[in-house]
Description:
Blueprint: E1 2-8, H1 16-24, E2 29-35, E3 39-45, H2 51-60, E4 64-68, E5 72-74, H3 84-88, E6 94-96, E7 102-104, H4 114-118, E8 124-126
Amino acid sequence: xxxxxxxxxxxxxxxxxxxxxxxxxxxxxxxxxxxxxxxxxxxxxxxxxxxxxxxxxxxxxxxxxxxxxxxxxxxxxxxxxxxxxxxxxxxxxxxxxxxxxxxxxxxxxxxxxxxxxxxxxxxxxxxx
Length: 128
């Protein structure tokens, strides 16, 4: 399960992810991170059965946690199945089925936004 974790560094530089792994014993896969001296935003993937426990631990550490169920959103009325998103996606989120209709595997998305930029019909957006 994908979780978008944001936190402020105003209260100190506590290692939120390391603390959570140590506390819960749950291994966390960091898929994307942007952390500077003021704040951080991290996209993580955790086993679904452990998501609630990880969320609770991170919130107790002062982080905001958002569960991402559908990271990529496709407007069916705008999408023409052109495949522009297929070639730019580094995570293979998009693929064609046997009838050449675009299929979405949103659980693979790391919110890079390359598909949104590549889409000539503005049919794609990402949640952030």
